[in-house]
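Below: protein 1.
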Amino acid sequence: MTVAGALAMDGRINLGWAGAIALLASVLGDIVGYGAGRVLDREVLERRGRWLGLTALRRIRVEALFEQWGGITVFITRTFASYLSSVANLLAGLSHYPFSKYLAFTLAGRFAWTSAYLALGYAVGTDLEAASGFLTNLSAFLLCAVVLFASASIASGRVALSASAAV
């Protein structure tokens, strides 16, 4: 996507068409994964899932995310943790997560991902030093956001635990 953005900045391809094609292709791929999860049963996925990238560790991580966060998991696996998206697709289908919600979160996440990478490529073009600096800053920002989110989750869990212990 960053290469497509750089090519669009250079006038070699149309930015809108590149984004639309990438968005459509990624969402269709996600829908196929969701459908596979609906068709396959848990036993088949546990025995043959490694062929689809469903390792035991990935399955455990994504199931934990789904149990706690539902649709936010779909969004996060489309943007920040896209390497888990194929596993999330299968598990969303397997757990019969409502398709309308799944599709809405998938579209939002894929739109954000596609837009961000296209914009990065368009903004930096062929300036690799600018791209490297941007990615370093983005990584630091995301790391801080994850730490803050985790800290807030832990703090709210402790408050809830101490409140229930007092009762």
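Below: protein 2.
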Amino acid sequence: MKAVKTLLINPPITTETLYGKFARGGSNQPPLSLCYIASYLLRYGKDVRILDAAKFKLSAKDIMTEISKYAPHIVGFHTCTPYFNAVKSLASQIKLLWPNILVIAGGPHFLGNPTDDIENSKLDIIVVGEGEQTCLEIVEGLEQYDIYDFLLNFVQSVKGLVYRTNGTGKINPPRELIQDIDTIPHPARHLLPSFDTYRLLLITSVSQQRQCRLPEDVHSGVFFA
């Protein structure tokens, strides 16, 4: 059984892209969803890293360089809708350079139409719903199979996945929610840069508060983005 390395990537979307002219007040938050996935894999002794491409404003070339250094078997992307085009582009480049890397994505974007998303991208797998147990099963599957046997013979057995067969997206039965959330370890924050380097809050000045006419139930100038 081979050791499988997993690289989880927060796509390189800047605050300027997300917030436009309000970018100066936008938050640059750590990708905690990836930290939870990573902590779950670490609990079971798996090799996993996180690359916050948004934080470091990495280019596609930079990301390919990091992938080449680490040589992962799996690359996984966190995907909100504003990130999807970037994820599609990166997935295409990865599959062109390294066909044997399993490229997966998960996140709130895929609560929409994941079969269409996988049919129109180079993603191998889309994770729908909670990803901790699903990602663990993916890693354990790749420990036993090469990527081709995995996609042909194993992927159908994993709940919460969308995959492609002959170009057509297929949806597996949904995965049950984790009932006891205490079984999920604390997020693997140590795989990220220091939290002090992230901009977590939007803090408004007194003059800005006056201009915004804050609702009466807002008691401070601090907003969680």
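The CA atoms of residues 53 and 62 lie 9 Å apart.
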